[in-house]
Specification:
With about 100 residues, the chain is mainly β. It has a single domain, classed as Folate-binding fold (2-Layer Sandwich). The chain contains one helix and six strands, in the order βββαβββ. A hairpin with a 3-residue loop joins β1 and β2. The longest helix is centred in the middle third of the chain and has 9 residues. The protein is globular, with a radius of gyration of 15 Å. Pfam families: SoxD. Keywords: Oxidoreductase. GO terms for molecular function: sarcosine oxidase activity. It comes from Methylohalomonas lacus.
């Protein structure tokens, strides 16, 4: 059984988690076009090596960040998203 160390809930069975994709820079909310948003939301780099990813602990609804090696699937470390992100992004409604 593979164990994922959740920053909130401690070590848990990997079956309790869902990967949310790579952590990457978000396009500027009011300046990015449709193509930039599509790339950001749907395309992955598929890197061989170390990646930083969003993970969700399904039972608690807790999102956090994990660093993982894609070839060995070894989880290097996990930590709260607040270590990378300190403020919310506010989106303005576009009334076109």
């Amino acid at each position: 059984m593979k164990i994922m160390p959740c920053p909130l809930n401690g070590p848990r069975n990997i079956a309790e988690f869902v990967c949310g994709g790579e952590v990457k820079a978000m396009p500027h909310p009011s300046q990015a076009g449709d193509a930039e948003w599509a790339d950001y939301l749907f395309l992955e780099d598929n890197t061989l090596g170390f990646v930083t990813e969003w993970w969700l602990h399904v039972a608690s609804g807790y999102w956090f960040i994990a660093e993982r090696h894609t070839a060995s699937n070894e989880i290097i470390r996990t930590y709260p998203a607040s270590e990378l992100f300190s403020q919310r992004v506010e989106f303005q409604e576009n009334n076109e």
